[in-house]
């Protein structure tokens, strides 16, 4: 970013520091979010777009038991494992049922359930990208090569357009030391 008084293309670090990484209270349109104290507790918070993913609007979701909102298959998975452990839960939710990926994690005193539409054609197998990334890391002999391989491997695993590897100093100032990006 460039700001007033800085040369074209120069980076204004003060402006970058003010740029929000996440917007509190906002949920991106490709997913929805609900939160409750636990699987059998009432939903205390729901994003406005739950109808598109859960088949019920936020007003109908609030106050309902989380297990009833997410359905028996996901509710059973919530009871079987610690939230946030392992891969996302994949299944179908809503009316009519649509394929989704769900990540559950602890947030404050309760559970946060993030629901996203499943990728077209079903979930991708991450093993080839992971094997490639590990092979590239193993073959790297110098630190710059390791950092480049880490960025390349993470981009392959996530599908992000741009991945940067940062090094932080004692004051937590960051410097980009590896990067992989789309053209």
Helix content: 25-40%
The arrangement of helices and strands along the chain is HEEHHHHEEEHHEE
Q: Which descriptor suits the 3D outline?
A: elongated
Distance N to C terminus: 19 Å
Short note summarizing the structure:
This protein is an alpha+beta fold. The protein contains 7 helices and 7 strands.
What does this structure look like?
It is a single chain. The chain has 183 residues and is of the alpha+beta class. The chain is 31% helix and 26% strand. The protein is built from 7 helices and 7 strands, in the order αββααααβββααββ. The strands form 2 sheets. The chain has a 5-stranded antiparallel sheet with strand order 2-1-5-4-3. A hairpin with a 6-residue loop joins strand 1 (31-36) and strand 2 (43-46). Helix 6 runs antiparallel to helix 7 (143-158). The chain starts with 12 loop residues before the first helix and ends with a strand. Mean pLDDT is 79; it is low at 1-9.
Which structural traits does this protein have?
31% helix, disordered N terminus, 7 strands, 183 residues, 5-stranded antiparallel β-sheet, alpha+beta, two-stranded antiparallel ribbon, 26% strand
What topology emerges from the helices and strands here?
Elements: H1 13-18, E1 31-36, E2 43-46, H2 51-54, H3 58-61, H4 66-70, H5 72-80, E3 89-93, E4 98-107, E5 110-117, H6 127-139, H7 143-158, E6 162-168, E7 174-181
Antiparallel strand pairs: 1-2, 1-5, 3-4, 4-5, 6-7
